[in-house]
Amino acid sequence: MTTASEPMADAPREPARRHATPRPAPALRGDRLAAIARGEAVPTETHRELAGERAILEVDGFNLWYGTKQALHDIHLDVPFGKVTALVGPSGCGKSTLLRSVNRLNDLLDTVRITGDMRLDGASIYHPSVDVIQLRKRMGMVFQKPNPFPMSIYENVVYSLRIDGVRDRRVLDEVCERSLQAAAFWDEAKDRLKESALGLSGGQQQRLCIARAIAAEPDVLLMDEPCSALDPIATGKIEDLIDALKGEYTVLIVTHNMQQASRTSDYTAFMYLGRLVEYGPTEAIFTRPHLAETNDYITGRFG
Amino acid sequence: MSSDPVRIAAAPVRTAPGGWRRRVKQRSTLHAHGEPMLWLTGGALGLALFMIAGLLVLVVWQGIFTFWPGALVEVTARSGERCLGEVVRRERYTPEPGAVDALAPDEAAAARRELEAHRGQLGRRLIRIGNFDITGEHFRWLEDFRVAAETRPAWAVLVERTSWGRCYGIPRAFRVDGEVVAETPEAVWEKYRELHGAARARRARRKALESGDIGRINHALEQARLGLRKVELESGRHSAAWAAAEPRFLQEQEAAAQAFARVQEEIHTIERENARYQIVCDTYHRGQIVPATVMLGDIVRAFAPNRLSFVAKLGVYVSRWREFLCDEPREANSEGGVWPAIFGTAVMTLIMCLVVVPFGVLAALYLREYARAGFIVSAVRIAVNNLAGVPSIVFGVFGLGFFCYIIGASIDQLLFAARLPNPTYGNGGVLWASLTLALLTLPVVIVATEEALAAVPNSMREGSYACGAAKWQTVRRIVLPRAMPGIMTGMILAMARGAGEVAPLMLVGAAKVAPDLPLDGIFPYLHPERKFMHLGFHIYDLGFQSQNSEAARPMVFTTTLLLIAIVAALNLFAIWLRARLRRKFVTGQF
Question: Model's pTM, two decimal places?
Answer without folding.
Answer: 0.79
